[in-house]
Amino acid sequence: MIILGVESTAHTFGIGIVTDKGKILANVKDSYTSKDAGMIPHEIAEHHEKVAEMILKEAFKTAKVKWEDIEFIAYSAGPGLDPALWKGYHIVTKWAKEHRKKLAGVNHCCAHLSIGKMWNKLKDPVYLYVSGVNTQVIIQEKNKYLVLGETLDIGLGNMLDKFGRILGLGFPSGPKIEELAKKGKYIELPYAVKGMDVSFSGLLTKAQQLVERKKSSKEDLCFSLQETAFAMCAEVAERALAHTGKKELLLVGGVGANKRFCEMLDLMCRERNAKFYKVPVDLAGDQGAMIAWEGFLRKDEVREMTINPHWRADEV
Fold first, then answer.
1. CA distance 150 to 55
2. Which of 39, 161, 80 is nearest to 6 (CA)?
3. DSSP-assigned letter for residue 233
C-alpha cells in the first residue's frame, strides 16, 4: 500500500509518499519565508496554491510512482492556521476528485509523534513535542494521547521567531538564533516552570527590553534565551520520565533541529539512565511523510471532516 500525505498547517507545503511498511519514498516541501515579518496567513495560502502542483510533480518523480499507485490521500486537517488549512483542504479535495481517491484528515501533532516513534522503532516513549505553536510533554496510554504538560502562553518556536523579528533576523529565525548563540555568554533571564507547564512570554519580554535598552549583545541574548528555554523544557521532560517510570524520551517538532537543544536533553537522559531519541532534520519540521504515515495508522477510523484549526492531540 502506498499513501500520499499533504502537509499545509502553517508556512510549509509538503508532500510525502510512504508505504505501509514505513518506507519513505518521497518527502518534498517548500516553505514560505519573510524578511521582515512572521507568518502572514493570506500570503501563506497564496504560497501553497503556487507551489502545490510543482511539489506534487517532484514527489511523484522522486518516488517513481503515478496516481494509480496511490491508495488514498492523507492531509493535515489541524491544528494550524485557518487560511493555510483551508487552502490545503481545497487542493487535496481537487486531487481526490480528479483521481478518484479517498481522503483522510489527520492530526498534525499526532503525525509528528507517530513518525518519530516509527523512525526510532520505539514502543512507549515520553514525547517532547516542540514546534512553532506547540510545546507539550505527551505520553500514550491505551492508544490515547495524554498531555502531561504544555506551554501556558506561546510555543517555543513562536517565541524564538518573535525574538528573531525583534532582532531583524527575518522568518523563520530559529537557525539564525542558533548560530548567534554559539558566540554568546549567559545572562540571567526569567525562568518560568509551573509544575509540568512552562511559560515563555516573560522570557521574551525581558529579552526584548534588554534589546531596546541596548544592555546586551545579540549573541549573549540569543545564547541566554536558548539556554533558559531549553532548560525549562528539559526540566518538565525529566519530571515526566520520573513520574511515568519510562526510559525513552523522544523529541519531535521543528525546534528539534536545534543541536544545542538535543545536547541538553541527551545529557539529562544519560544522567538518569534514560535514552534520548530525535528524528533527522528532514523529519523534525513540518513535512508530508509524517501526514502519510499517520494516515496509514488511522486508515480504519471513520472520520468525516474538513479542517479543525484547534484540534489537540489528546482529542484524537
1. 33
2. 80
3. H
Burial class (CB in 10 A: 0-12, 13-18, 19+), 201: middle
Closest alpha carbon to 30 in 1, 5, 56:
56
**From CA 107, how far away is CA 75, in angstroms rounded?**
9
3-state secondary structure of 74: strand
pLDDT in tens, 78-94: 999 999 999 999 999 99
Q: What is the pTM of this model?
A: 0.95
d(CA 71, CA 38): 36
Contacts of 182 by beta carbon, 8 Å cutoff, 6+ apart: 223
> 76-106 b/e with 16+ CB inside 10 Å = b?
bbbbbbebbbbbbbbbbeebbeeeebebbbb
Q: Grid coordinates in use for 5?
A: 500525505
DSSP of 257-302, one letter per residue?
Answer: G-HHHHHHHHHHHHHTT-EEE---HHHHSS-HHHHHHHHHHTTTS-
